Amino acid sequence: MDTIGRREEQILLAVGSLEDDAYLVSIKKFLSKIQGKPLSIGAVHIPLRRLERRGYIRTHFGEPTPARGGRRKKIYSLTDKAIRVLEESKRVHDILWSSYASIKS
């Protein structure tokens, strides 16, 4: 089974949460808000490209908007491969957190 890094996992979860609104700036804002600290565009863009190359996300372009000077947004969405790796990551995290909690009790 493939594994992904923590930032990649966060980005995939953000893409899945934002659904049709998952474009670079919205992903950055979403993660910055949750983490309580600003992220740079590069901290999101570089892993997005890597995730796309590895087959975890696919892209399509939205409609041109006047607010963007007629440019279209690049929208990201999860592939089945991403869903599988996220589910496996959650399973492992749950086991590890349960083990940690039992030690601390």
What does this molecule look like?
The chain is mainly alpha-helical and 105 residues long. It has a single domain (6-104), classed as Winged helix-like DNA-binding domain superfamily/Winged helix DNA-binding domain (Arc Repressor Mutant, subunit A). The chain has four helices and two strands; from the N terminus they run H-H-H-E-E-H. The protein has helices spanning 6-18, 24-35, 41-53, 80-104, and strands spanning 57-61, 74-78. A two-stranded antiparallel sheet has the order 1-2. Helix 1 (6-18) crosses helix 2 and helix 2 crosses helix 3 (41-53). The longest helix has 25 residues, at 80-104. It is elongated. The relative contact order is 0.17.
Give the overall shape, derived from the CA principal axes.
elongated
Average pLDDT for all residues: 93
Characterize the largest beta sheet: strand count, sense, and whether it forms a barrel: 2 strands, antiparallel
Q: Percent helix among the residues?
A: 55-70%
DSSP strand tally: 2
CATH topology: Arc Repressor Mutant, subunit A
Name the poorly predicted regions.
none
Number of domains: 1
Question: In terms of structural class, how would the helical and strand content be classed?
Answer: mainly alpha
Beta content:
5-15%
Entry summary:
By secondary structure, this protein is mainly α.
